[in-house]
């Protein structure tokens, strides 16, 4: 891969880029359901970021819910709101809390 890259630069081949835009969705507040990853914001399939976003969402959500009684609908709703407010949308925002 390295040699092909250097060869392209030496030939003066134009380097194409893929712009990545953020299109976050509005939170979908339905008791018992939480949107994660690509379902909550658009990512271009070529970047492979959707699975990373979903796994980061799961990790963040687990940390939020781990000491919560999941039968307490009011508490779960508050934590769901917190999740939607504080989850990171862009890869460049840094790690999740």
Automatic annotation (TrEMBL):
Its UniProt pathway annotation is: Terpene metabolism; lanosterol biosynthesis; lanosterol from farnesyl diphosphate: step 2/3
Recorded topology in the membrane: Multi-pass membrane protein
Q: Which cofactor does it need?
A: FAD
Q: What is this protein called?
A: Squalene monooxygenase
Which UniProt keywords are listed? FAD, Flavoprotein, Membrane, Oxidoreductase
InterPro entries the record matches: FAD/NAD-bd_sf, Squalene_epoxidase, Squalene_monox
Q: Where is the Squalene epoxidase domain?
A: 3-90
Q: According to its record, what are the GO cellular component terms?
A: membrane
Q: Which family does it belong to?
A: Belongs to the squalene monooxygenase family.
Q: Name one GO biological process term.
A: sterol biosynthetic process
Enumerate the SUPFAM superfamilies for this protein. Answer: FAD/NAD(P)-binding domain
Question: Which portions of this protein are annotated as coiled-coil regions?
Answer: none
Entries under PANTHER family matching the protein:
SQUALENE MONOOXYGENASE (PTHR10835)
Q: Which reaction does it catalyse?
A: squalene + reduced [NADPH--hemoprotein reductase] + O2 = (S)-2,3-epoxysqualene + oxidized [NADPH--hemoprotein reductase] + H2O + H(+)
Location(s), subcellular: Membrane
Report the function annotation for this chain: Catalyzes the stereospecific oxidation of squalene to (S)-2,3-epoxysqualene, and is considered to be a rate-limiting enzyme in steroid biosynthesis.
């Amino acid at each position: 891969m390295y040699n092909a890259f250097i060869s392209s630069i030496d030939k003066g081949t134009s380097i194409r880029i893929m712009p990545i835009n953020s299109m976050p969705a509005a939170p979908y507040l339905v008791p018992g359901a939480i949107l994660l990853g690509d379902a909550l914001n658009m990512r271009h399939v070529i970047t492979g970021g959707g699975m990373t976003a979903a796994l980061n969402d799961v990790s963040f959500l687990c940390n939020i819910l781990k000491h919560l009684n999941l039968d307490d609908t009011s508490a779960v709703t508050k934590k769901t709101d917190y999740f939607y407010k504080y989850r990171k949308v862009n890869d460049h925002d840094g790690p999740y809390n």
